[in-house]
Model the fold of this input.
Amino acid sequence: MISPTAPKPRSTVHIRVNYADVDRMGLLHHSVYLKYMERSREEFIRRRNGAYAAMEDAGVLIVVVEANLRYKRPARFDDVLAITLELYEVGAASLRIAYEFLRVGEEQPIATATTRHALVSREGRVLRLTDEIRELLTRDEAVTRDGELG
Done:
């Protein structure tokens, strides 16, 4: 568990809304937010000198077991979104992550979300977080580039 007084590991990525991700109304389709959340989790791990692939190769899968999204305002084609991910709870075998979606240059969120993840083996057995994975998840960003993800 992360101490309530400790700074929470966080990361912000920028993603430009592309044409393939909008609906006929020109709005970012509601399902794409989940895809953007996945991309922000991948970048969170990468910026801590980790890789999902390496964990999966070692037989550790981080699966989503719950997702909650609250849509507040629409995003549109060509908007650049700043997605801030905050790891706010690390349990014995699970993680909880919060997300905030902002249109770059604005202060009001367009969406907020949370996910809960379990660590499991390829066979679906629950795994406890190793000290190595816990340290990876809670370390400071090694790469501070906050560039736009295509």
Notes: Residues 10-149 form a domain with the Thiol Ester Dehydrase; Chain A fold (CATH 3.10.129.10).
